[in-house]
Amino acid sequence: MSMTLLEREAALALLDRPAADPRPELTRRRRSGRGSQGRRGARPGLSVTGGTGAGHVPVLAEELLEQLDPQPGQTAIDCTFGDGGHAHLVAERLGSAGTLIAIDRDPLAEQRFAKLAAETACSVRFIRSGYAEALAQLTAEGLRADIAYFDLGMSSMQVDTRERGFSYSYEAPLDMRMDPTQQLTARELIAEWDERRLAVALRDLGEERHAGAIARTIVRLREQAPIETTQQLVEAINSAIPAPARFGGGHPAKRSFQALRIAVNDELGQLDRALPLAWGLLREGGVLAGISFHSLEDRRVKRFMAERAQGCICPPDLPVCVCGREPEAALLRRRSIVPSPAEVAANPRATSARLRAARKLREATP
Length: 366
Known about the structure:
Layout: E1 26-29, H1 61-68, E2 75-78, H2 85-94, E3 99-104, H3 107-119, E4 123-128, H4 131-141, E5 145-151, H5 156-159, H6 186-192, H7 195-206, H8 211-224, H9 230-240, H10 254-265, H11 267-281, E6 282-292, H12 295-309, E7 329-331, H13 341-346, E8 354-360
Parallel strand pairs: 2-3, 2-5, 3-4, 5-6
Antiparallel strand pairs: 1-4, 6-8, 7-8
Helix pairs in contact: 4-11, 7-8, 7-10, 8-9, 11-12
């Protein structure tokens, strides 16, 4: 799913925007007669069909499948369905006896899911919701899963649907909502947040060095006229950043747009709530994986997994362990997995991706 805006500027065909339905949708479907076993030998990264969105290339697809190792009959949770590229590959491995649960709050994702459901042999279910809320619902249902994975940030379909206002590359309303039924938009945030709150968001969520200057400029300009479009915001950002800083390191608005998008959609709050819920849904031996596209996400995934992989926490000078703490998780790789040079060359959107995965060894001690 997610990638930085800069890496998404090669625009795909404009997608039709479906009517938003405010109700969470649950879909279950089982098909027979078309198993997935005959395709196990295909290269995962090359096996995506048009059924998951024209032009979409799932990032780190082969590496994700290697870490998850989906087996026939297992239950998998795709926490960030998006265009469905990873879900399609996982569903192929689960076979007719397996179950895939897909989660996304975007109605466009639900449209993509309907196509995947018609093409896969496994049992499928879609929950239209934020992933933290959906995982809490699955926990309440008593579900147990073998696999759970996140592809964080934006999906291609969101940035390429221009009227959603995610990109700084073209004129569009300042929207940035992943769920178009929610109230808060980027326009309201720009219009209503005070200078200090804007600066904190730009600095903490976008890692923007010129956050203070940009916030001051936004407040000054909005007193003269409302800032309601992406290009008005880009002009405000450009006018606030010193000329030397506008060159090199990508578009000068990319960090601010990232910060606003994260704030509008509460992306980091969702992730903080969702990681322990996804972990709790896994059976012993299950695998949790996360693909991140910027350091704010990656640090959270890394810290969550490292904490569960830690064993004894006794002071190093004690001769024997007295805490009795045992690891809950085994990291499948000590370092994050990054795209190969060949993948980056073929798909520049993969440039900043990092994959981490951990296996659940046991249930947490009460």
